[in-house]
Amino acid sequence: MSFDVRKDDKRTSARTGRVTIRKWVCSVEGERLEKYMDNNNNVRMPKKLTRCHCPCLFKVRYFKEKNSYVVVDFKTDHSYDLAQPQESHFLRSHRSVPNSHLALATSMRRLSIKTCHAYQYMADISGGFANVGFKMKDLYNKLDSSQREIVLEGDAKATLAYLEGKAVEDKKLFCKYSTDESNRLANLFWRDSTSLLNCCCFGDVLVFDSTYKTNHYGKPLVLFVGSNNHLLTTIFGFALLVDETVETYTCVLQMFLESMEGKKPLGILTDGDEAMRKANELVVPGCPHRLCTWHISKNDQKNLRNPEIVAEFRRCMFDETTPCGFEQRWRAMVEKYGLHNRNWVKMMYDK
């Protein structure tokens, strides 16, 4: 195949989590986003434009009646000249570092041989750089990810060992985790006896927050927090997630409810994440879901920018009024500032 393939549209069922639509396209399909076209304020030189509206695509849809995926769209035409067969192995989706080459580069690294020299050696024994099958950058990336997996596995074991040690001191400590197909740590939830007591006393309203990322691995860190009688933040638990999908949020929310010994929240606040909202509906159906004002205030400046519009938006969102009063004020704001086609404003209204 003489062109590069890119994953595009993916849709999943909110109820079952099954992928219902999947589409693959040519790597040069579409066009560069307009916000990246303004190069006046760029510090670096812009990359060359590569998107040229190539129509080639392959799309499948899941049909429940047949219990199978069916091809619903398939276009083979391209809008540019394809790569020659002898060049196809340099396309991004075709490149890979074989395990044999990775093992060789790893061994040479242990002998203090630089990666660039290891790549040069592979080119020599393959009869030239064109016959290696991957670029030097691919080798650097593969070695880096391989090293990260080794470190991550060691850190995961150390974390679980630490929590096991704390459980000896704190009999009420709760820790639960899940693993992936490779038996590596995926999702981890824990809370201590103090968090259990806090939740029993102040857990009527739960703030489900995943805006933080751990520095080294970029894994989402979820905080389960609330507010006590002194309006101070109270921690109910923590979770490290493998990703931010409906399935993952559902899993960790179930862990949280299991740890709280029957205590269920009467209301949940989130940052507005759609996957998080769906997980709430699955695990605690009927529990009211609201948006966190801190996240709204953080995002309105980024999306509206005009201080006057931001001030009017916040009056609509935060001032005490009736449902009819809110609708009237919202329509007036949209008409006054011409916000009919602003997607973020529409999204906030729908939420």
Task: Output the keywords.
single chain; 351 residues; alpha+beta; seven-stranded mixed β-sheet; four-stranded antiparallel β-sheet; 10 helices; 22% strand
Structural class: alpha+beta
Please indicate the percent range of residues in DSSP E strands (runs of 2 or more).
15-25%
Task: Please describe the biggest sheet, giving its number of strands, its sense, and whether it closes into a barrel.
Answer: 7 strands, mixed
Distance between the termini: 44 Å
Uncertain segments are none
Radius of gyration: 26 Å
Roughly what is the average pLDDT, rounded to an integer?
83
Number of helices: 10
Number of domains: 4
What order do the SSEs take from the amino end to the carboxyl end, as H and E?
EEEEHHHEEHEEEHEHEHHHH
Largest sheet: spatial strand order: 5-6-9-8-7-10-11
- Give the overall shape: globular
Using DSSP, what is the number of strands?
Answer: 11
Question: Can you describe this structure?
Answer:
It comes from Rosa chinensis (China rose). InterPro entries: FAR1_DNA_bnd_dom, MULE_transposase_dom. Residues 2-83 form the FAR1 domain. The chain has 351 residues and is of the alpha+beta class. It has 4 domains: 1-84, no CATH class; 95-169, no CATH class; 172-291, no CATH class; 293-350, no CATH class. The chain is built from 10 helices and 11 strands. It has helices at 99-110, 115-126, 136-169, 193-202, 246-259, 274-283, 293-304, 307-318, 323-337, 343-350, and strands at 5-12, 19-26, 57-63, 68-75, 174-179, 185-191, 205-213, 220-227, 233-240, 267-270, 289-291. The strands form 2 sheets. Strands 5-6-9-8-7-10-11 form a 7-stranded mixed beta sheet, sandwiched between helices. Strands 1-2-3-4 form a 4-stranded antiparallel beta sheet, with no helix packed on it. Strand 7 and strand 8 form a beta hairpin. It is globular and about 75 Å long. 17% of the residues are buried.
